Amino acid sequence: MKRWLLSVALAALPVFAHADDNVLSKIDAKYDDTATVARQLWEWAEVGYQEERSSQLLQDRLKAAGFKITKGVAGIPTAFTAEYGSGGPLIGILAEYDALPGINQDATPDRSPIEGKAAGHACGHNLFGAGSLTAALSIKEWLDETDTPGRIRFYGTPAEEGGSGKVYMVRAGLFDDVDITLHWHADDENSAAARTSLANRSAKFRFRGVSAHAAGAPHRARSALDGVEAFNNMVNLMREHVPQQSRIHYVITQGGLAPNVVPDFAEVFYYVRHPDADGVENIWARVEDAARGAALGTGTEVDWEVIHGNNPLLVNDTLAKMMDEKLREVGGVKYTPAEQKFAENIRKSFDDPRLSLGSQEDIQPYSRSLGYGSTDVGDVSFATPTVGVRAATWVPGTSAHSWQAVAASGSTIGVKGAQVAAKAMTLAAIELYTNKDLRDAATAEFIEARGDNYKYKSLLGDRKPPLDYRK
C-alpha cells in the first residue's frame, strides 16, 4: 500500500529525470545542421549591414521551424526577429553574423589568404549565428514537447563590428517586453564568468583643405592630411592624461593618392573606450576639441560623423552563476586526432599563447572582471537582464580578429564550440522557464544595478543606422 501511494505521488510530480541528457543528445543530433549554417556564413563573410544572404538564411531556417518572422526591424534591412510560443516568460536569444573587413584566411592552420576575398569571420560571428540558431530551435522543441508556457524570440542582430546594430534595436523598443536575454561569443576558452566591457564611441573625422602642386605652389595649398596628422599627434599626447583603463585608437582611411598633390580631403576613423559611458563622453569632448584645434592650426576645416556607440555590459551575477552551472554540465570541447594536429600546427604561429593546448576541454573558474573589448550587447543588458557564455571555438591561445580565428571559425573545432554554446543556452532557457524564483532574483538584481530613475541613453545619439559604413 505504501509503495502504491509513493508511486502515485511520484507520478503526480513533473518528470524531469534525465531531461537534460535528452536535450543535449538532440543538440548533438543537430551537429550537421549547425556545421552547414556556420560554414555557409563563413564562406559569405558579409560585413556589417550588408549581410543580406546571411540574414535570409537564418530567417529561412527559423520560418521553416514555425517561427514568426519580422523583417527589417529598427530601420535595418538585415535585422529581424523570429518568435515562437505563447504565454509564460519571454526569453530572447541574440545572434550575430557580420564579418570583419580587411582580413581573410582559409580554414587551414597555416597562413593562407583566399584570393579576392575582402573579409573574414575573425570574430566568429558565423558560429555565433549558427549556434544561436541551434539553441533557438532546441528551445522551441522543448517547449512543444513539454507543453510549457513560454516564448522564445530570436534576434538577428547585424553589424556588431563597429555598427552597433543592437543599439538601434534597443532604441526602437524591441527588448522592452523581454524577461531575460541570452547570448554567447566565440573564444579560445569556455567560460560563463561575469565579465563587463568598455563603453565606446566612434566617429569618422573628415578634414577639408585646398589642393595644389606640392612642389610648384605649396604656399597655395592647405593639406587636409596635415590636419589629420596634427589631430592624431594631439590625441596621442593626450593619452598620457586620460584614465588608465581608457582606450583610444584610430586608422587613417583616406590620406591622398599622390605625393606631389596636396590632398584637399583626408579622413581618420577614431574609437574611444572607457569602463563607463560618462568616461567616454568626457574623453570624447577633448577629442573633438583636438580636431577643432588641428583644423585651426593647419588652415583646414573639419567635421565628423558618429558611427557607433555602445554602453558597457551590465553583468548579472544571478544569471551568470546559473549559466556557469549549465556550462559545467555541458563540458568543454574534445578534439579528434585530426583536430589535435590542426591545433598543434596553428599554435606554431603564436608568439606567447595565453592558454595551454588541452584547456579547451576545461571550464574556466567563475569570476567577475573587466573586459577591454566593447559590444552592443551592452545596450541590450541595460534593457533586459542579460547573460552570456563563451565557448572554445578557437585553438587555445588564439586572439580575436586574427587570421587564426578565421581559420578555426571555418573548421570543425569552431562548430564544436558553437554546439557547446547552444547546449549551455538551451539548458539555461529551460531553467529560466521553470524557475520563477531565479527569474525574480535576476530581475531584482538588474533593477538595483541600473539604479533608481534609470533612463536609457545611447552613445550614438539619434542618428539613423549607418547602413553604408562598410562601403
Automatic annotation (TrEMBL):
* Endpoints of the signal sequence: 1-19
Q: Which SUPFAM superfamilies match?
A: Bacterial exopeptidase dimerisation domain, Zn-dependent exopeptidases
Pfam families, per the entry? M20_dimer, Peptidase_M20
Ranges of residues in domain Peptidase M20 dimerisation: 202-293
Q: What keywords does the record list, in alphabetical order?
A: Hydrolase, Signal
NCBIfam families for the chain: amidohydrolases (TIGR01891)
Q: What is this protein called?
A: Amidohydrolase
Taxonomy, top ranks, is:
Bacteria, Pseudomonadati, Pseudomonadota, Alphaproteobacteria, Parvularculales
